[in-house]
Amino acid sequence: MRLGTLHLDRGGQIFLLLLALTTLLVPVLNLAVPADSPLHVSTFTVTLLGKYLTYALLAIAVDLVWGYLGILSLGHGAFFALGGYAMGMYLMRQIGDRGVYGNPELPDFMVFLNWQELPWFWQGFDIFWFAALMVMLVPGVLAFVFGWLAFRSRVTGVYLSIITQALTYALMLAFFRNEMGFGGNNGLTDFKDLLGFDLQSDATRVGLFIASALAVVGGYLACRYIVTSKLGRVTVAIRDAESRTRFIGYRVERFKLWVFTFSAVLAGIAGALYVPQVGIINPGEFSPINSIEIVVWVAIGGRATLYGAVLGALLVNYGKTYLTGVMPDAWLFALGGLFVLVTLLLPQGIAGLLRRKEATA
Amino acid sequence: MKTLDTLRTTMRRDQVWEIMVPKTGLELDISHGTILYLEDISVTFDGFRAINHLNLYIDAGELRCIIGPNGAGKTTMMDIITGKTRPDTGTAWFGQSIDLLRLSEPEIASLGIGRKFQKPTVFEHHSVMENLELAMAADKRVWPTLLARLTPEQHERIDGVLETIGLQEHRARRAGALSHGQKQWLEIGMLLMQDPHLLLVDEPVAGMTHQEMDRTAELLKSLAGRHTVVVVEHDMDFVRSIANKVTVLHQGSVLAEGTMDEVQNDPRVIEVYLGGGDGH
Ligand SMILES: Nc1ncnc2c1ncn2[C@@H]1O[C@H](COP(=O)(O)OP(=O)(O)OP(=O)(O)O)[C@@H](O)[C@H]1O
Ligand SMILES: [Mg+2]
């Protein structure tokens, strides 16, 4: 990798440093420090952190297309959920005959629906590498086809945002249906193990947390590589003056298509890491509000910085966990209020505030 | 019946199918000394004829000024050359061999026709140097762009253009922070990065100070010869300071052509344009 990737990226350097420290420290504090010690980090917290990290990766994916390419995607939750479903299908197949009905071939919900055999689209999901491939391929292909249609007909701005919302909404309705074969409104759950590791064990939880942290680092560096390359300068040019970029000879549609697809793949990976940690995936993950929330994280953290997206995802989700604990009804209002405040007072988000501090110091 | 008609037209024996016609050569051929031929071009917008049987020939390497009152069709003419607007009738050839009316906007741009728009549009969030880098003639597909690194030759090329447009000291500045005149020069620089054969420059000095105008005149004059330059401009002093040959457009066609003095003394021009008090 080229030197320039992290060069001049103070925020990114700090973020990676903190993430590395956390990733080293948390497993030790969970596994090696006795449970009665005040320094002990509970497995619940480890998993919570792991979940936040998958959100952080999702936020990076959205920042790539929104902050650097100008596509306000209100449908990235769909790619996240599809990656999650692909992982969920693998986990379902791992249950084997340990389900309620004890059917070694069919997941419980299929037995319940009186299905006789595994549908064709479930074939292969008992193999980890195949499922892992699908985690990336399914969101990637959907984004590619969607983008090919949308960008080629030059749909932009708010219209594009609306159809991305429609996309995730349509998928939600589809996945709610039992005959789709994805468990209907219950989704996929009751997972037992992953690659032979018991999902309930502390070590597996720590492992998933570390995997999530590594995915965030990998996603961050990949996106950083893209945005500091000439391709990144082209995408920012597209964001700022699309027709001008087209005029100097770039096939704007293709650039949008590839970056959008890559971003969807990242979102899919995030979803795949999310599902074994929360233990369930259901159509609620496709709900339009989820996709909007991701955009709010990015706006609050600060667009077009990447580390700002991470910051926003972590802070907002910590706030959400905290607030839904004390005042469950207040969350949506708090989120809306925060979004309005940040848009009005901090158009560059928290990262913008930090950067301004740095500039004046 | 309708199907039959369609079939008849498609199968006409006196014609060759469009797809069978070989795409005309894409090598610029200026062996006859003329780089641009516009012949009998007409364009109508909602019944209004913006270009009316226009004939215009530009010699390779010349610096041509085009003047004409507002709405004369100057910008529309550039739209036709660059493929943005399709004429209703007429032909447009780039050199002997390239039929412009068959090509798309990006194809025309990549063949070497660069255009500066009336309103300057540079990439405001990029530095001056990055603006030039983006405009540089290069493989502009997605993968090559991701992997692209500036070679020493390309660095030199950017430095060369920075010098030509006089922005060496501003190379690292954000383009959005440049003055109006500097943005115009940067935009001309972006055109030069594409190594165009033909430069179309629409109103380069609108809103410039006198000093900036003088520098722009020097710049455009220095480009002629190596490039062919077509300038549309309202400012008569400016046109006088750069032009050898001036074409006057009026109501979508050529009214007069010649040196500045010839044109200014042409009674028809005086009547419709200079006499109209529009020039100064
Ligand atoms: N897309 C369009 N649709 C309808 N009318 C148009 C369009 N483009 C140009 N016109 C009309 O065609 C005429 C010629 O316009 P054009 O912009 O070419 O003039 P111009 O010579 O560049 O004028 P100016 O000196 O003001 O820039 C004008 O009357 C204009 O209103
Ligand atoms: Mg004009």
From TrEMBL, chain A:
Major location (coarse): membrane
Alphabetical UniProt keywords: Cell membrane, Membrane, Transmembrane, Transmembrane helix
Superkingdom, taxonomy of origin: Bacteria
Signal peptide positions (record): none
Compartmental location: Cell inner membrane
MF (Gene Ontology): branched-chain amino acid transmembrane transporter activity
Regions crossing the membrane: 12-32, 78-96, 127-151, 158-176, 203-223, 255-274, 294-318, 330-354
Pfam families according to UniProt: BPD_transp_2 (PF02653)
Bilayer disposition of the protein: Multi-pass membrane protein
InterPro entries: ABC_transp_permease, ABC_transptr_urea_perm_UrtC, LivM-like
A cellular component term, taken from the record's GO annotations: plasma membrane
Name of the protein in its database record: Urea ABC transporter permease subunit UrtC
Automatic annotation (TrEMBL), chain B:
Domain ABC transporter: residue ranges: 36-276
Regions annotated as coiled coil: none
Keyword Protein biosynthesis: no
Protein name per UniProt: Urea ABC transporter ATP-binding protein UrtD
GO MF annotations, alphabetized: ATP binding; ATP hydrolysis activity
Matches recorded under PANTHER family: CONSERVED COMPONENT OF ABC TRANSPORTER FOR NATURAL AMINO ACIDS-RELATED, HIGH-AFFINITY BRANCHED-CHAIN AMINO ACID TRANSPORT ATP-BINDING PROTEIN
InterPro entries per the UniProt record, alphabetical: ABC_AA/LPS_Transport, ABC_transporter-like_ATP-bd, ABC_transptr_urea_ATP-bd_UrtD, BCA_ABC_TP_C, P-loop_NTPase
Provenance organism: Thiorhodococcus mannitoliphagus
